[in-house]
Amino acid sequence: MAADAPRSNFIRQIIDKDLASGKHSQVHTRFPPEPNGFLHIGHAKSIVLNFGIAEDYQGTCNLRFDDTNPLKEKVDFVNSIQADVRWLGFEWEGKPRYSSNYFDQLHGFAVELIEKGLAYVDFSSQDAMREMRGTLKEPGVNSPYRDTSIAENLKHFADMTAGKHEEGKAALRAKIDMSSPFMVLRDPVIYRVRFAHHHQTGDKWCVYPMYDFTHCISDALEGITHSLCTLEFQDNRRLYDWVLDNISVDSHPQQIEFSRLNLQYTVMSKRKLHLLVEEGKVSGWDDPRMPTIAGMRRRGYTPSSVREFCHRIGVTKMDNQVEMSMLEACIRDELNHGAPRALAVLDPVRLVIENYPEGEVEALQAPNHPNDDSMGTREVPFSREIYIEREDFRESANKKYKRLVLEKEVRLRNAYVVKAERVDKDVDGNITTIYCTYDPETLGTDPADGRKVKGVIHWVAAEHAQPAEFRLYDRLFQVPNPAAEDDFFSTLNPDSLVIKQGFVEPSMAAAAADQPFQFERIGYFCVDSQDSSAEHLVFNQTVGLRDTWNDQA
Description:
Elements: H1 10-21, E1 28-31, H2 41-56, E2 60-65, H3 75-87, E3 97-98, H4 103-115, E4 119-122, H5 126-132, H6 150-161, E5 171-174, E6 189-193, E7 207-209, H7 211-221, E8 226-230, H8 236-245, E9 254-258, E10 262-263, H9 270-278, H10 293-299, H11 303-313, E11 321-322, H12 324-338, E12 341-342, E13 344-345, E14 348-353, E15 361-367, E16 377-383, E17 385-389, E18 393-394, E19 404-405, E20 409-412, E21 417-425, E22 431-439, E23 456-457, E24 460-461, E25 466-473, E26 497-504, E27 517-519, E28 523-527, E29 537-544, H13 548-552
Helix pairs in contact: 2-11, 7-8, 11-12
């Protein structure tokens, strides 16, 4: 991939000091997703940070799946995550890694803790263990199983491993400090029984390590130098340090926390994203309204625009809500310069040019980009009958209205000046046809008599128009922070998807799914990668031509 310009932040400053002092000779990072859902824009921030740092410091970055919960993980999620990382322009060191690769070693470290008197098997119920933990204001209470002998604990853990205990009936807990002010140190569970098939290890195990036990050890085994994670894991660092200090590993990765991405008008919780999919509020994980990388890709976002967004928001320790307009500005800026133009009409009304020769078709030349001659031109057919946008015509209007009005003139984009003469209406008073005349001397030039025509509208020749479905997307939620609501479903935007049936110019029949376009005067669109076909063209709106939300504010 083309390198993005490095941008300094407090993490890079720490790495610079570590390299200058000789603490590390090479940087080794990792991106460690749990394969229990699709990645979202928040994960993109972590991907860009971890892989970007590895690239800039000529180091390495692992892709490791922290796959400790077989009940929620799927190979489909594994595959989607790999596709997303590569789409963003990054490649990991060697093969993808899995925490499950280390299950034998993790089990051995659990036994080591038992042998040191630092772990015990607890047969208390989950509710009882929850009660024993205490609260933020009150210390916890020791479990009645906390002082079980080492020999008995080794036997109990062996029985757990052999499948002799039911799920929820036994758990291995670290013996740390039930009076610690940090809840994570109050004898956390580090192994539990799960009779579940694992997507990597099959049915080998019926005990699985907890994430907090697994994560730090996996980092150590892989020789990670800088373990970058979000602020929610700040307290967990104390548990990670305790685990690594008490087992036989040589490496002790340095954990550095940064603020997670909170994007307005959407949710970043995988649990909530799961609910949106499971409850049918969206069409799937790759619904273009979703903040998932797959959804953004389907909507027409580019890898470079997502990376640029991650750079713009920066890396800090301060939690905040990022405006959706910042993300949209990144793709809008890119497509304004790089997207070829095309003509489309989303809400069509027929326009007949009465003085244009019947049966004649003219091949007009239209620039693919108004400011970039290197993108060339294309032929656009023009004929007596065309479609224009219904909102581009009024029977009467004030001087601020710069489009077509009865007895007034307007220019058709890259074509002629036309004048509206009369209209046909249906029984309900809706306009069905607009009748115009055109000035044949105005192709590519102003009227010879010096009259000024200020308005320009887009159009599509009726005979050659390709029918198309247009999916217009808005914010998925109506409030900036839906995650703060008790019922976040109640804040869903009923108009987050509006479907229009219209027409595109004939050249769009061959449009590729990964090719963005600006439909002139409308917005930026791409072919839908799932539902579009030669027989039924479907275009997804990526973003509008301007930020209408801030205009409304």
